[in-house]
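> forwarded from #structure-qc
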């Protein structure tokens, strides 16, 4: 056993434990665990360690910073993994993210949507996206107010190169996961409302919510994508 194998085994154990907790939370809530996917959040983590996590079974990576992700993606593009953009996105970076990412979780304005549509069009891509919702109106966080989500969804539905798949949120921070539950429920209710409108070209099947401290509660409330960093890679510097 090489040193690298030892490290890969540690990632395998951590990922297996998280997946078990996801399965338990889904089954307790009467949900099919196959409808919940683990996004391994690899921001600030080196390409070498991400390579080991992929070898250990992490098949979806979540990245926050365009420049960092571009470098890592080019180092690891030979590996079979799916890349999700989960960070705040500036319009002038849209042309880079459409080339790399299979799902963009953080669309929060019509102008950003328009730019992503334009850049995806240039490379003939249908770009899957989520709308990021700022449920508590926190000034430090990205995301559209919940009352504006429907208008943005209708706007996106008319853009030929974007495919809206659902909603994402970063709720306020609490050290008690139960306190976050009302926000997860609110996002699911908003998703259900928009789903009921049957907007053309809009699917709304995905709910991206839950992180290391609260992903089980998120799964109980309907999460289909949980974004977990610390529990896989350890505490970030
Ligand atoms: C960093 C980050 C996460 C992961 O947080 P952990 O607490 O380390 O699991 C999830 N979502 C977003 C948007 C993040 O920026």
């Amino acid at each position: 056993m090489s040193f690298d194998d030892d490290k890969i085994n540690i990632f395998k154990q951590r990922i297996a434990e998280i997946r078990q907790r996801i399965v338990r939370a889904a089954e307790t809530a009467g949900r099919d665990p196959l409808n919940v996917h683990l996004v391994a959040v690899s921001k600030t983590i080196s390409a070498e360690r991400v390579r080991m996590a992929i070898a250990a079974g992490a098949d979806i990576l979540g990245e926050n910073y365009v420049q960092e992700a571009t470098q890592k993606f080019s180092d690891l593009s030979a590996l079979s993994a799916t890349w999700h953009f989960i960070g705040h996105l500036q319009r002038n970076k849209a042309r880079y993210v459409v080339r790399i990412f299979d799902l963009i979780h953080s669309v929060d304005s019509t102008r950003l949507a328009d730019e992503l549509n334009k850049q995806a069009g240039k490379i003939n891509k249908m770009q899957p996206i989520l709308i990021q919702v700022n449920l508590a109106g926190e000034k430090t966080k990205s995301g559209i107010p919940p009352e504006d989500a429907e208008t943005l969804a209708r706007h996106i539905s008319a853009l030929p190169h974007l495919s809206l798949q659902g909603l994402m949120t970063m709720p306020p921070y609490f050290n008690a996961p139960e306190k976050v539950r009302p926000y997860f429920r609110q996002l699911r209710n908003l998703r259900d409302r928009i789903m009921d409108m049957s907007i053309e070209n809009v699917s709304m099947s995905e709910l991206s919510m839950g992180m290391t401290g609260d992903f089980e509660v998120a799964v109980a409330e309907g999460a289909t994508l949980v974004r977990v960093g610390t529990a896989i890679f350890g505490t970030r510097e």
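QC bot note: The radius of gyration is 17 Å. The chain has one domain: 3-233.
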